[in-house]
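Quick entry between incubations.
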Amino acid sequence: MAAGLVVTSLVLSGAELPTLLGTHAVTLVVFLGSIVIGELVRLRMPSGRDTAPLASASALALAVVGPIQDQPVFQVGPGLVVLVVAMGLALAAGARRLRHLPVSVAPLAARLLGVALTASMVRQWSVAGWSLWEDQTRSDIPRGVVAVGMALAAAVGLVVELLLVATVRAERQRTPWTTATRDELGEAAPLTFAVAVTGPMVALMSPILGLLALPVALVPLVMAYSAVGQYARNRATNRQLIATLSRLTEEGGYTPSRHAERVSDLSVRVGRVLGLGERELRDIEYAALLHDLGQISLTDPIPDGATVLAAPSDQRDIAAEGARIIRRAESLDAVARYVELQTTPYRRVRELGEEVPMGSRIIKCTNAFDDLTGGSDEPAAVEAAIERIHLGLGYEYDPDVVDALTRVVEDATAGRVGERRLVSR
Amino acid sequence: MWLSIARFGLELSPDLAVLVVLALGVVVAGEAVVEGQVRLSLSSVLLLGGQALVGPSAAGMIGVLLGLLQVRGAPAHVRLFNAALGCSYATLGGLAFMAVGGDADLGLDRSVWSIVAHLALPILVADLVQLSVNLLLLAGVVRVTYGVPIRHQVGELLGSVGLTNAGYGVIAFLLVLLWVPAGMGAAAVLLVVAPLLVAQWAYRQHAEELRGQERALQVLVAAVEAKAPHLTGHSARVADLAAAMGEALGLRPHTVADVRMAGMLHDVGQTSLPTALVRSVASTSPAIDDYPRRSAGILGGLSFLDGALAPITDHRTALDRPDARAGLASRIVGLADEYDLLCEVGGPDGDVTARSDALEQLRARPGVDDALLRALLVALGRSSAAATR
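Done. Structure below.
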C-alpha cells in the first residue's frame, strides 16, 4: 500500500521534481537531514517498541510548512512531501542496515501513510475555498486557529499511523486488536501530543526565523525525548534488577539455570495473547521472575527445583514464603499476590468461586510447562508437556490460559513486541 | 517610585492575565522532582517569557506569586523568602533583558539578524542573570546557615543545572517569538506547553521507577534476611554506618552512595549458600568466606552497581591487609560490617561484644588506621544522636 503511495506520488508529482531539487534544494536538505538523524536516534519505549519522535515531527513539519524567510515559499503538492519523507526513511533504513540494526518495513510504511494523510489534509482539503496551507498566509485568519488546525491534522496522521501499526501487530502476534490498539495509543499518547505541535510551530516561525525554525522548534521535543529516554532506560535497569533476584535461587542450586527467565518470557507472551494491559503484564513479568524466590530459605533443595513435582503443601509453603519476602518492599503487593496464589488449582475458582488473579493462573501454567520440558524446545518434549498439562485442563489449569500457551509455543512470534526483546545481561 | 514602575511597563494587560493564570497552573501542577532535584522548571520558562512579554516589574510580580504558593505546606517564613527570591531574580532578569536592547515587538525589521539581536540574545542574557541571582542568593543562605563556602556550591549547582537552563532560554524564546512576532498571541502557550508537559510526565514516571528500584533492593535484602534470620536489620545498619563514615572522611556524594549500596548488599552472596550452613555456623566461620565473591557474581550485570562491586568483593578481607592495599571504600564497608557483627548481631548464642572491647579488637587489624577508626566513632556518635532525638 505504501509502495503504491510512493509510486502514485512519483507519477502525480513527477513534473514537480525538478522544481523540488532546484528551487527548494536548501529546504530539502535541512528537512531530509533532520528526518534521517531523527530516525537514527530512535527511542526504545519500555515495552520494547521503537519510536522516532524527532523524525516524525520533522516529517509533519514538512507537510505543513509554507513561507520560509530567505527561501522560496514551500508551495508543493502532498506527493512531493511524501517523496521527501520516503527518501529520508529509506536513507535512514539503509544506514541502519549498514550498522547491522534491524529494519522493519511495516512501521515505516505506516509512518509514510500518516504523513501523506496530514499533507493532503493541510495542502488540498479546502474549507470555504481555502486550504489550511493557504490560510497561513492570510492575515484575516487568527494565527491560533491556523496552528490548532495544523496540530489537529498532524494528530490525525499520527493516530492513523498508530492504528495501522496496531493492526499489523495484532495480526502478527495474534494479540486481540483492541488490546494492541490500546497499548499503542496508550504508550505513544504523550509523545504524540508533543510531536503534533512541532509542525505548526515550524510553520509559524519559519516566515521570521527561516530554516532555523526547525531546530529551534525541536528543542522542547528533544527535552521531552530525553526525559522519556531516561525513564525507559530506568525501566530496563529495574527489570535487570528483578532478573538478578530471580538468579538468587539459581546460584544456590535450587532452580535450574534460566528457568525464571523462560517462565517470565512465556508468561508475558501468554498474557499478551490473552489481551492483558501493559501494567498487568509488567506485574506478571516480575512475579514470574520471582515465583521461586520462596525456595531460598528451604533447608533441602527440591530435586531440579521443579515445583510442579513437589507435594502441594510444599508448593504452597514456597509460594507463601516468596510472597512474604516480596511484601517486605512497599507497593509490590500485586506481584506478591500473583506469587502467593500461583499454586491454587483452577478447580477452586470454578467450584468454590475463589478469586485467583489471571497472573497467578498464567504462572501456574507456564511454570509447569517449563518444569516439564526442562527448558528444552524439542518438539517431542514440548508435545509431552502440553499433553500432560491438557490432562489437568479445567482441574489444575485455566482452559483459556492453556489455549493461549498452546498458541504461544506453536508460534514463535505470538505475543512478542518489537524487533528484538529486551534481554537482561 | 510609581513613576519608575510605570516606566518599566506594569499595566494590567490581557497578556499579564494569561501569564498569571499560567503561573497558577504551574502551582497546581507542581514541578517534576527526581531525586530531590527539579528536572524541568516550568516556572523558570514562565518567568523568562514574562520578562520579555510584560516587562520586569510584572515578571517580578509573577515571581512573588510563584514563590508564595509553590512549595506546598511550607511555613510562612519560607514562603516569604521564596517570594523575595522569586521577585528579585525575575525583576533583575527582566531589567537585564531591557538593558541589552531586548524587545519582543520587532516592528518592521524582521530579518533573522534582528531576531537574534533583539530577542534571542537578550533572553539568553536574562536567563543567565536569573540563574546567577537565584544561585547566589540560595548559596548565600546556605553559607549563613550551614557554613558551606559559596564558591563550592555555585560550582556544583551550575554543573547540574547549566544545560537544562539553556534549554529554558530556548523555550522562552520560542514562546515569545510565537506570541508577538508570529502573531499568535496567548495561543502560543498551547503549542509550547505540550512538549513540556510530556517531559514532566516522563520525569514523574522516572521518579516512580527510581522508587521501584529502591523497592527491588528491599526485596534483595529481605531475601538475605529470609535466608539468615539472625542478620535481620544488619544490612540496613551497615549501609547507614558505612555511608556516615564515608561522609565523615569527606568522600564525594557519589562515592558515599556507592559505599551505602555496598553496605546494603554485601551479604547477598549468602543466599546462594546452603541454608543449613548459613544458619548453623557463627557468622565469622571460614566456611562461608566465599560469599563476597558470590555476591559480586550475582550483582555483576547491574550497571548502576559498578561502583559498589569492589567494596562488596573485598570487604571481608580488606581489614586484614596493610592499609594501602585495599581501597578505602572496601575498608569502610569491611569495618562497618565487622563492627555491626560484633556489637549488634553477636555470636552464635547471641552474645554481643561491648563497644569499647570491639573498638580495641578492630584497631588491632592491619587494615584499620586512626582516620578510619575516627570516622567510625563520628558515624556512631551521629547514629546514637539520631536515635535519641
